[in-house]
Amino acid sequence: MELDNMISFILFCWLEFLSSITVTNAATYNLSRSWIGSGFYDDFTFRTFDDPTHGRVNYVDLDTARSNNLSFASDNAFVMRADSTNVVPSSARGRDSVRIHSRETFSDGVLVLDVRHMPIGCGTWPAFWTCTPGSWPVGGEIDIIEGVNGIGTNLASLHTPPGCTMPTTGRMMTGNFTGNDCVSGDGGSNSGCGVSDPRPRSFGQSFNDGLGGYFVTRRSATRGIATWFWPRLDPFLPYDISNPSSSSIFESLWSTPWANFPSSPNMCDMTDANLLSPHEIIFDLTFCGDWAGSVWSGSGCAGDAGWSCNDWVDQNPNAFADAYWEISELRWYVEA
Ligand SMILES: *[C@@H]1O[C@H](CO)[C@@H](O)[C@H](O)[C@H]1NC(C)=O
Ligand SMILES: *[C@@H]1O[C@H](CO)[C@@H](O)[C@H](O)[C@H]1NC(C)=O
Ligand SMILES: *[C@@H]1O[C@H](CO)[C@@H](O)[C@H](O)[C@H]1NC(C)=O
């Protein structure tokens, strides 16, 4: 190779290298929307359908939730809770609780949740997630906070139609994968591809004892989905996340995510709307059902004393006093 050819070849490689860095590099995001207190009533709807995961739950509408104080808003808090005063008749649909969906849908960007308390207690199954409003699993689902009985640590999962698998190495995350095929729906397992956070503070009683914390989820069609979590008093909590008035946030400040679901053209192409479409943001709290109900025996809950999960939920209202979400703020950022 002649010298000037050599130089242009090296230059070409260098530029290719730089552009590959730009693709994988951390981005800056600007504030687009935020929800505090009664702001949730404007932009989220209360859903009252039967729980698709077969929980022992009766999702109530906005008026019922507010008049029974199952939902409450102040200047700095938004609360959603289970009924913890009434015995549920066996003929009823289940224990009163709340499930809300955002009116709008969201795609690429960063969702920051500042949450002080999550629902705990035997039989509970809370979740904070995003999902296609279409015909699941087409368009996908991203579970950000999920677990059962207030026990164990947090699990994040991705659910898609066939055609999305996670690499077995090089995922750059501190959590532990529980499955690498994200396929969900008829004929397959519904567990998707999960990642569990090994930190006890990430879920349940221990999360609440730590005064809650911050869940940050980045979605990028080309780079994939990543989630970070910091307990409220974590000395490594980045200032752009803890500051409620941050108008810009910087991914480069956040270190390694605990869960990472990379997008790649061959294994999981998140630019494909069949796998990942615009999503609603959802909070819910159900009881028993497909997950909490199926692990009820041997979970350390009252199943070990002979109660069925549904009977426990129906007959022990006091056991649901801590079954509530208390949210400080939810923010949505888009790439700057
Ligand atoms: C409603 O719930 C909120 C939040 O838990 C609480 O502060 C308030 O006292 C409750 N109101 C009534 C009337 O019970
Ligand atoms: C999770 O993964 C880490 C390494 O990434 C490993 O040290 C740890 O033992 C794993 N924990 C569990 C519960 O598998
Ligand atoms: C993001 O915010 C910065 C600082 O205010 C501003 O300079 C930039 O134009 C914003 N980007 C977009 C896309 O709005």
TrEMBL record:
One GO MF annotation is: hydrolase activity, hydrolyzing O-glycosyl compounds
The Gene Ontology biological process terms listed for this entry are: glucan catabolic process
Identify the Pfam families for this entry: GH16_XgeA
Residues spanning the signal sequence: 1-26
Annotated GH16 domain residues = 22-300
Cross-referenced InterPro entries: Beta-glucanase-like (IPR000757), ConA-like_dom_sf (IPR013320), Glycosyl_Hydrlase_16 (IPR050546)
Q: Has UniProt tagged this entry with the keyword Signal?
A: yes
Q: Which UniProt keywords apply?
A: Signal
* Protein name (Swiss-Prot/TrEMBL): GH16 domain-containing protein
This chain's source organism reads Kwoniella newhampshirensis
